[in-house]
Structures are given as C-alpha cells and as structure tokens.
Amino acid sequence: MSELMAGVNPTRMQLLALKDRQNLAVKGHGLLSEKMDALILEFFAILEDVKTVRTELSEMLSRAFKFLMDTKLILGALKLKEIGMAAPSLFKLEAETRNLMGVRVPVLHLEKKLDESEKTPFYGFVDTPTVLDESVNLFQQILEKIIKFAEIKATLERLADEIISTKRRVNALNYVIIPRLEATTNFIDQYLEERERESFVRMRHIKRLLEKKDIEEKSSQETKSILTE
Q1: Is the distance from CB of 183 to CB of 4 less than 8 angstroms?
Q2: How many CB atoms lie within 10 A of CB 166?
C-alpha cells in the first residue's frame, strides 16, 4: 500500500484540492511520457548521424595522413615542420545554442577569415608538391567535419541527460506521487464516508430519542387529562 501524504487534513475541501492535484499529475505524467518518447526518437536519429560522421571522419583522416606522409617523403620532415609552424590561424569558431524539444543544444560555426594576406597559400606554391595542397585542403575539410562531429556529439549527450532527467520525473510521478495522491484521496473518501455514516446513525438515534420523548410527553398529558376529569 502506498504511503499517505503528510500534513493533510481529512476535509472535503482538502479532498477536492487533492483530486485536482491528482488529475494534474496524471496529465503531467502523460505529457512527460510523450516528451520522453520523442526525445528517445530524436536521440537515435542523431546517433545515426554520429555514426555516419565518425565513419566519414575516419576515412578523411586516413587519406589526409597518407597525403601528409607522401609530402614528408618528398620534402623531408624538417621542411614539413617549418611549413607547419608557419601556418596562420585561418578559422574562427562561433558558438551559440538552439532549442531542441526544450533542450538547449550547441550550434557551432567554423568561419574562415577573409584577410587578403590569408587568401594565398602560406607556403611556397611553386617549390612544393601538389600532394601538399591536397593534404592542406583535406585537413581543412577535416577541421570542419570535427566541428560538426563535436556539435552533434554534444547534442547527443545533452539529449541523453534530458532523457534520464525526464525518465526520473516520469517514474517519480508513476511510482511515488500519483500513488500517494490516490492513497490519500481514497483514505479521505473513506474517512468522510465513515463520518457521514456515524452522523447518520447518530441522527437516527437522536430522532428515535426525540420521538420517544414526544410519545412519553403525549402519554403524560393524556394521563393528566384523564385524572383531571
């Protein structure tokens, strides 16, 4: 049997208030259950995106490192390191959030700087192999893909947290709050019904006593009348 709610007086006004709370809790349980189902569907849809992007990223990294190794074989490790050290900051990261089914999730934008000095390659275009160009271009694409991966991964984690939080609230309503409200309203119902029965029995008893008294008074008056005559 579920525990009764503490500090509740068994009155009819309290009963009506508890029934209103019970109806509200049942509606809230239904809405939260629907929200949790929708969040789970969204979670698995984004999970598929995570798997897809991870696969694409793995393939791109494999190709990019092959280009990089080919460049290293042509230019040498020292020259390649010099080119890497000379690389300017070409991108800036902008972050904001959006509302996804009541959950604030990140939105990341990787924007390329538009300085005129950075539109041309930062390394010698003539005395470097084309495989270096391919490597640089591919690593830039990889950076964009990593930002995308980070965005959807963070979205997935926040959805997972919200699903867990929503599930706890659904379970609390389902197994604690609603059963306690039901048990308390049933107790007050039974208590008030018992009070009404006791009151009815008491009123009947009082009525019988009054009727008996009335009969005795009438009998006494009739006796006095006979004696007077």
Answers
A1: yes
A2: 20
E strands of the chain, at which residues?
91-100, 103-112
Domains present along the chain, CATH in parentheses = 23-172 (1.10.287.3240)
- Tokens 């789970």 label which residue? 40
Separation CA 143–CA 136 (nearest Å): 11
Q: Which two tokens stand for residue 29?
A: 């349980």
Residue found by looking up tokens 């508890």 in the block:
18
Q: Rounded distance, CA 88 to CA 71, Å?
A: 19
Contacts 24+ apart (CB under 8 A), 56-59: 56/145, 57/142, 57/145, 57/146, 57/149
Q: What is the pLDDT averaged over residues 176-188?
A: 92
167 φ, ψ (degrees, to nearest 5): -60, -40
Residue 142: both structure tokens together: 């990889």
Q: What is the pLDDT of residues 91-136, one digit of tens each?
A: 888 899 999 988 999 999 888 765 545 555 667 766 788 888 888 8
Q: How does the average pLDDT of the chain come out, rounded?
A: 85
**132 contacts 177 by C-beta, under 8 angstroms:** no
Given a contact cutoff of 8 angstroms between Cβ atoms, the answer to whether 152 and 50 are in contact is yes
Backbone angles phi, psi at 92, to 5 degrees: -135, 145
- Which amino acid does the sequence have at 89? S
| Position 100, amino acid | L
CB of 174 closer than 8 Å to CB of 40: no
